């Protein structure tokens, strides 16, 4: 199972739209998405605070940001 991390903020309309599109998928098989507030860690806030929503893979690589694109996500997750 591959764990992805969606960084966003409460009451962020872009984050809510991204999350809704992510739920509607399709996500690559075997993926689970965890959610976190970008402000929970100083490193996240500095690196991604102005770029949210940001979807990261298990290695911290940015898979998507701003607008969810299922095709780009699938292409970015290929081994």
From TrEMBL:
Pfam families: Glrx-like. It comes from the Bacteria. It comes from Sinimarinibacterium thermocellulolyticum. This is Glutaredoxin family protein.
